[in-house]
Amino acid sequence: MMKGSVEAQVEAATLLNDVEALVRRYVVLSLEESAAVTLWCVHTHAVEALGVTPYLAVTSAEKGSGKTQLLEVLELLVARPWLTGSVSAATLARKIDVERPTLLLDESDAAFKGDRDYAETLRGVLNSGFKVSGSYSRCVGASGTSLKVHDFKTFCAKAVAGIGSLPDTVADRSIPIRLKRKAPAEHVERKRERRVRAEAAPLRERLAAWAGETEETLSALELAPLDELPDRAADIWEPLLGIARLAGEAWLGRARRAAVALSGRGALKDESAGVRLLADLRAVFAERQADKIASAALVSELTAIEESPWGEWHGKPLTQHGLAKLLKRYEIAPHTVRIGEATPKGYTLEQFKDAWIRLLPPSETATTPQPAWLSEKTADRNRNTTPSVAVANNGANPHGYGVVADVAVANGGTGLGDAKS
């Protein structure tokens, strides 16, 4: 017999609360991270119905921050857990292809820097395996005429832990969980293996049963994306928001806040090097109020920014050649510019307009001011979704720069559509 909607929501909320309570007994997490990890645990039991899986990117600046502890707790709760460090490339591809486990990969930083064949396979599996259609092609068989190309299925739930940051393409598909060493006032229980496994076993059975009962509902669920999330983040959060929706308004609200805090447009602390470079370049152009700058001057300005990596880029300051290489992916190249009587190689402000509009948030902090023309462009693009952006007047500014006022986030309901059955 089908449960009533209120009864079903209470049951789902109770299940999520119980999962979260177990996780938080052994790992120090923020409220937003705790909500994300809990919903991610549940989604592993329904990943086939959902058809898409967000990865968990569990990182820390230092060892001893609880990454392995978190993976070990997840192992007790997720569907078909496979907790491992480094395996052979063939084992990785075949096990995921055949069993579709929940991959709990520890020490990924060492894996990406280790054996080349394994690192390439891992990267291929992660880059394609967040959608049910994902596959990775490899040659199998003995060398010679018996070699055949095999498409290994790569779709499965994955949590990847490591020190530092993950490759951009992996991070782009992931929900960031950034762990820190416990502060003196923070306490967690000591994880006694036999006891915690006995406690977790019935909880995992409840998770599997709930996922089975709601599989049809989850597979048909359609959600309107949160405006505060970039497109890719909206895609990977949709399954978790759907699960939260079935648990009632309290969990839905928590899931939305977690999504915005961890993956929202303002959460760019670990953005790609390219995006960081574009933001810093925008700041340099705005501060100089120039429409063209020589390459040498740009590099000098970039390497002087203390909070950015350009002063120690791969062990030495960023060079003009390095700058050109980083910008090549955005189809931005240096060319001869006239500055006074000189004609050095450099860049014009016009070259960056498209990349700035597409890749940077519509407003920045005071350290990265936004040109007036860019404020107008982004205001047009976001019309009817966010309040207009006010630009301070500056009649003495020959290049049309302005200081952007704070942008208020529009409150417009949950942003979530109704489920279709």
Keywords:
16 helices; single chain; three-stranded antiparallel β-sheet; alpha/beta; five-stranded parallel β-sheet; 2 domains; 421 residues; disordered C terminus; Rossmann fold
Radius of gyration: 24 Å
Low-confidence stretches: 363-421
What would you give as the CATH superfamily of the largest domain?
Answer: P-loop containing nucleotide triphosphate hydrolases
Helix content: 40-55%
Q: How far is the first residue's CA from the last residue's CA? A: 17 Å
Q: What strand line-up does the widest sheet have?
A: 2-3-6-1-7
Tell me, rounded to a whole number, the average pLDDT: 81
The name CATH uses for the topology of the largest domain is Rossmann fold
E-strand count: 10
Discrete helix count: 16
The CATH class name of the largest domain reads Alpha Beta
Total number of domains: 2
Layout of secondary structure:
Elements: H1 5-26, H2 31-43, H3 47-50, E1 55-60, H4 67-75, E2 81-84, H5 89-99, E3 102-105, H6 108-113, H7 116-128, E4 135-140, E5 148-153, E6 158-163, H8 168-171, E7 174-179, H9 193-220, H10 231-246, H11 249-263, H12 273-288, E8 292-294, H13 295-303, H14 320-328, E9 335-336, E10 345-348, H15 349-359, H16 372-381
Parallel strand pairs: 1-6, 1-7, 2-3, 3-6
Antiparallel strand pairs: 4-5, 8-10, 9-10
Helix pairs in contact: 1-2, 1-9, 2-10, 2-11, 5-7, 10-11, 12-15
